[in-house]
Design a protein that fits this description.
Layout (H helix, E strand, L loop, with lengths): L1 E8 L4 H11 L5 E6 L8 E5 L5 H10 L4 E3 L3 H6 L3
Antiparallel strand pairs: 1-3, 1-4, 2-3
Length: 82
Amino acid sequence: MKTHTYSNTNIKCAACEAKIQGAFDQDARVSSFKVDLANDNRPLVVETADDMTTQEVSALIYQAGYEAKPEKKGLFGKIFKK
């Protein structure tokens, strides 16, 4: 299992969430996702199979009509996290 974290998305409501669900349903490697609609940045966490890349997850989000900024990883990401 691999976790992909997006710190900032333009997903705004439950209908948007449903469109994302439809995009994720197209790839069996996506097992679950959660959007925090109460947070102004609407962070998104996606659980996938180990072989799925962040770029592949981002492509599914984009195909659904949304944008998501992957969270920076590693020490650099922790230092400059916004």
